[in-house]
Amino acid sequence: MRRHRHLAIHLTLTAALLSCTTTAPPEDSEASEERPPNIVIIFTDDQGYGDLGSFGSETIQSPRLDQLANEGTRFTSFYVQVVCGPSRSALLTGRHPIRSWGWNMPASEVTIAEQLKTVGYATGAVGKWDVSNRAAVLDRMPNAQGFDYYWGPLGANDNGTVAFYHNNAADGETDDMASLTRIYTDKAIDFVEQNKDRPFLLYLAHTMVHSIIDASPEFKGKSGSSLYDDTIQELDYHTGRLLDAIDELGLRDNTIVIFASDNGAWNNMQERLRENHNGAVAWGSSGPLRSGKGSTYEGGIRVPAIVRWPGHVPAGRVSDAIFASIDFMPTLATLTGYETPDDRVIDGVDQTELLLGRSETGARDHYHYFVQNELQAVRSGKWKLRLPNLEKFYGYVDDRGTDGVELYDLSVDIGEKTNLADAEPDVVSALMEVAKAFELPEELGPTGIYLEDE
Questions:
Q1: Is beta strand 122-127 parallel, antiparallel or unpaired with respect to 149-153?
Q2: For every residue of 253-318, which 3-state class applies, written as one string?
Q3: Which end of the chain has fewer CB atoms surrounding its CB within 10 Å, N or C?
Q4: Can you say whether the dihedral through the CA atoms of 96, 99, 100, 104 is positive or negative?
Q5: What is the pLDDT of residues 110-163, one digit of tens each?
Q6: 5-20+367-440 with 38-364: one CATH topology?
């Protein structure tokens, strides 16, 4: 058994350990004896909680994604990670980045794609990879991590250009950011068409709306509000193209479509983004949530999420149950029949019952919030605790809270405005025990974006 060392919490603990036991997963696989469901994961970049009509935006028209929400379930307490690479390693492995290492994800990590291949799936990834330190490290690139097909950039577009790879080979570059959403969607549709006769996983990771954004001429100015909103509306349109292709191929009823963003809106770096876009608004909205990307306040880590699977996932439903990207590894195991890796800690829980509408609360009663290997907060039920004396912050995060304990009742204070730590000492103590119970891996990995960058 691997040894672990406990996270040190420099506060007196005065209450009994709050149970972290989760609902046991179903014994029987939900995978059909016929063809198992196709999986389509659409992962946008830096799209905030308030950046869809169905999540409250009054300036963005998103008819196709709003329709998807009406046809499936909209999850309003869906959690990812606070920044790009860590969010991707967590999604792909079912493990917090303190274990899966984010941008530095090692070749030894096991991905959803690798597991789906064991049960006969074709696997394709299109778009931003961002877990190989933005470098062509062959054993950490998509083909080596379970994807039969890959096309896209290995990293971000921070300098206004992206370099494409087709599988392991360089395949050109562009500085036309407005073209990326259409190109990625074209590649995604091609993959679906080529694999329509077998079960498949499509992982479509958009570059938009990260850093240097743009909309194509037919969408620029269309929102009537901002460049950012124009770009989201173009994402919505091309998402509709992909959904239409799935319908036209007769795959709609047997395809699980998952839509989410990788982290919150980059609304805490407005000055630089405005400079990079000739004064245009190039950042999104956290809606009612506090702060944005990089932060462990809700605006940095809670994102819009929608899941559709006709006849299985209830249509028109809104769920506020705690759900997370790390939960897809064990959940898809139940739905498709693969084995969840048993030689390592999996932080995700099986949310099949929640997804299929057979449970209102799901299998997750808590969630841990990390920045650069530092546990900064924990949620249990309606309560969220921010820990004291935090040390790790991304430079652009301006709202760093206090140095003390912060407690929020998210059921009535989603914006984290009223600190109840002094009024609810027993709740603070119980959540401190939840934090203390999280076991760090024996080895903490690097947290830098680039190779040997710490």
A1: parallel
A2: HHEEEEEEECCCCCCCCHHHHHHHCCCCCCCCCCCCCCCCCCCCCHHHHEEEEEEECCCCCCCCEE
A3: N
A4: positive
A5: 999 999 999 999 999 999 999 999 999 999 999 999 999 999 999 999 999 999
A6: no
N- to C-terminal Cα separation, the chain: 30
Can you tell me the distance from the alpha carbon of 69 to that of 64, in angstroms, rounded to the nearest whole number?
9
**What confidence tier does 452 reach under pLDDT thresholds 50, 70, 90?**
confident
The alpha carbon of 168 is separated from its chain's Cα centroid by a whole number of angstroms, namely 25
CB-CB neighbours of 333 under 10 Å: 26
User: Angle between the 63-71 and 227-248 helix axes, to the nearest 10 degrees?
Assistant: 50
- Cβ atoms within 10 A of the Cβ of 48, count? 30
- Does domain 5-20+367-440 fall under CATH 3.90.1170.40? My reply is no
Q: List pLDDT tens digits, range 186-235.
A: 999 999 999 999 999 999 999 999 999 999 999 999 999 999 999 999 99
- Residue 377 pLDDT more than 50? yes
Query: Residues with Cβ < 8 Å from 432, sequence gap 6 or more?
Result: 9, 11, 13, 15, 385
User: What architecture does CATH give domain 38-364?
Assistant: 3-Layer(aba) Sandwich (3.40)
Q: Would you kindly state where each structural domain of the chain is located, as residue ranges?
A: 5-20+367-440, 38-364
Number of alpha helices (DSSP H) and beta strands (DSSP E) in the chain: 11, 17
Helix axis angle, 180-194 relative to 227-248, nearest 10°?
A: 10
Using DSSP bridges, classify how beta strands 383-386 and 406-409 pair: parallel, antiparallel or unpaired. Answer: antiparallel
